[in-house]
Design brief:
single chain; alpha/beta; Alkaline Phosphatase, subunit A; 7-stranded mixed sheet; 39% helix; binds zinc ion
Length: 320
């Protein structure tokens, strides 16, 4: 029996956070310990995000840590870390080093052929648009990226897999989120005439996008930026915004139908005593339907294969 898109049994909403690891339980260095983040704590099974966490491992909730160093010396970087996370191939090994923030030339064919978007497409789910990238990009981004032919891992993945990169037009009809959630920076820094929204409203927009697609990715990079700044006030702003987004997502998503997945490419913001990325393991949260499929994940390489098997399994069980 053909599967109607609206009846798809599983929606995966992947919120990717750049530069957030599990660090020491130390208020002096770790803003995730210093600040009150109630929804971060819920996602971790009622505990703060730290390297001394108690693992959560149930059918519908997994909180664990995964390795971001990938067996390669040096500090993890976004280009190779994200390429690994979003393909399932160890791209630091392919490049011979950690490299970033943009994709390493040797990894571009891997991104082109086997990004998460490409792999979701290859599942041939009976849906007109199985995979979505929820971020909107301003006109300035396209001008700069085209001029230098320099794309991020996620935008390059979109181009190669023919996934729509959302724009101001999508944002105006609430079918996209800005990189900083509330649209304020589009207005104040880019002079684009959009009205600010709350994190709660943005969470509802993200939920709507997710409910319309089997797989949705949203990328948030200000965690990495705040980590490099070594500023507690900046970290507080960024983490509070995310906490509000998470709180509303937890309220609105139906965990019988949706899996909320949260992870990162490398550590950074969890240790404001250093300006650089860290060697720390990164959190992996799977919350909702199919969460148990992520309980064996040990490194960045394990995330995409688990997403694909979750979508394939859920789909097959309905087709029978
Ligand atoms: Zn960084």
């Amino acid at each position: 029996m053909p599967l109607n898109g609206a009846q798809l049994p599983l929606h995966i909403l992947f919120v990717f956070l750049d530069g957030i690891g599990l660090g020491e339980k130390n208020q002096e260095t770790n803003p995730l310990i210093k600040f009150d983040l109630p929804h971060f704590n819920i996602l971790a099974g009622n505990q703060p995000w730290s390297d001394s966490f108690r693992p959560v491992d149930s059918e519908s909730h997994v909180f664990t840590s995964i390795d971001a160093t990938l067996g390669i010396p040096g500090l993890p970087q976004s280009g190779t870390g994200q390429a690994t996370l979003f393909t399932g191939t160890n791209c630091a090994e392919t490049a011979g080093k950690h490299f970033g923030p943009y994709p390493h030339s040797k990894t571009k064919p891997i991104i082109a052929e086997s990004s998460i978007f490409q792999q979701v497409n290859q599942l041939q789910l009976d849906h007109p648009e199985p995979a979505a990238f929820a971020n909107a990009y301003p006109p300035q981004f396209f001008e700069a990226a085209k001029a230098r032919n320099r794309w991020t891992v996620t935008t390059l993945s979109c181009i190669e897999a023919e996934i729509k990169i959302r724009t101001l037009d999508d944002l105006k009809v609430n079918k996209a989120l800005t990189a900083e959630i509330t649209r304020k920076a589009w207005r104040t820094r880019l002079s684009i005439p959009v009205d600010p929204i709350t994190e709660q409203t943005a969470a509802n927009h993200l939920h709507q996008i997710s409910a319309s697609h089997p797989f949705t990715l949203y990328e948030y990079y200000l965690t990495d930026k705040a980590g490099h700044s070594q500023s507690f006030p900046k970290a507080h702003r960024v983490l509070s915004a995310l906490d509000a987004l998470f709180g509303e997502l937890l309220r609105v998503i139906d965990i019988e139908q949706t899996l909320l997945l949260i992870t990162s490419d490398h550590g950074n913001i969890e240790d404001l005593s250093v300006k650089t990325h860290t060697f720390n393991r990164v959190p992996l949260i799977a919350y909702g339907k199919g969460a148990h499929l992520f309980r064996e994940a040990r490194s960045l390489t394990d995330v995409t294969p688990s997403i694909i098997s979750a979508l394939a399994t859920a789909n097959k069980s309905v087709r029978k």
